[in-house]
Amino acid sequence: MLGRRRLALGGGAAAAVFAAGSSGDAGGRRAAAQTRDLTIVSWGGAYQDAQREVYFRPFAQRTRTRLLEETWDGGIEVLRQRVASGTNAWDLVQVEGDELLLGTAEGLFEPLDWDAIGGRDNYIPEAVSPCGVGAILRSFVLAWNRARLPDEAAPRGWADLFDIRRIPGKRAFRQGPKTTLEIALLADGVAPGDVYRLLGTRAGVDRAFRRLDSIRSELVFWERGSQPPLWLANGEVVLSVAYNGRIWAANADAGHNLGLLWTHHLMALDSWVVMKGSPNLSRAQEFLRFAGRPEVQVDLPPHIPYGMTARGVNERLPPHVVLRMPTGHLDQGVRISDRFWAAHRDALTRRFEHWLGA
Length: 358
Prior knowledge:
By secondary structure, this protein is of the alpha/beta class. 41% of the residues lie in helices and 18% in strands. It contains 15 helices and 10 strands. The protein has helices at residues 11-21, 26-34, 45-63, 76-85, 97-105, 180-187, 195-199, 202-213, 227-234, 244-254, 281-291, 294-297, 313-316, 319-322, 338-357, and strands at 3-6, 38-42, 67-71, 92-95, 133-145, 171-174, 219-222, 239-243, 258-274, 334-335. Strands 1, 2, 3, 4, 5, 6, 7, 8, 9 and 10 form a 10-stranded mixed β-sheet that branches. α6 (180-187) packs across α8 (202-213). It is globular.
């Protein structure tokens, strides 16, 4: 699913931006026609709402840059098609780790000028790559509605996602094999350190699908991060895999009473990339420099509690905010292997889609 939103600048900034386009100077009109808005693509929902407040609007106002926001649901094939079409209009895109690796290898992204965006030393090491700079550390957690499942009935681990006798009702996973297969093996008793070794074998993949078969009649799948909080709140599902930040935001913004479990949460690092051939490379890197400053990043977790990538952000946050973030629970987490999924996603997606349609 794709969405679009043009960011309106406030006050004098808007007047100044639009004044150049309304000038009677023909040269100015030609230059304006050759320049398009800086287009930034992210995940939508409560997360993109927070990005707008912390990053997009302040950057647009300070630099008098016109921004166009769009949303997407991910997928390397989408990026491949856009570059191959020759008509791609996206500049900055937030991608998952395996998409970063594949897109870099396939030449879908522009190499970053690290001096232009603040320097490698400004970021945690995991956030630094030739064509990508880390945006957030987010986690997939097990979530439920406390109003429907009181504390004594609440899930204690991923195994309860598969225990339809103890907790009957529908349960929701993210569409696709990524995270779904890891969770199936963790629920089947596989140690976190052995998950990807097993998923690299036919026997391990078969084992994960057998676990999914055990609750197939109760499975539903979501495509957008906004769906799990909504489904939990209205009772469509009793348990769901969900982004930690979306669960917290649903409680804070909509007054829900959703619980989440950090035990063996699956951690993922998303990155910003600049699409190959973007005419806005310079402005995109100017944005990345702004959004990578720790004094700017520190304002995002109070809006939605994802881990930040600039050095020193956690030290600036109150302890209660850090405890809402994946970085406050690193000892309980399982890091998603981007290299594994870059190598195996196509094959496992075919297997998943065949299983889903069988």
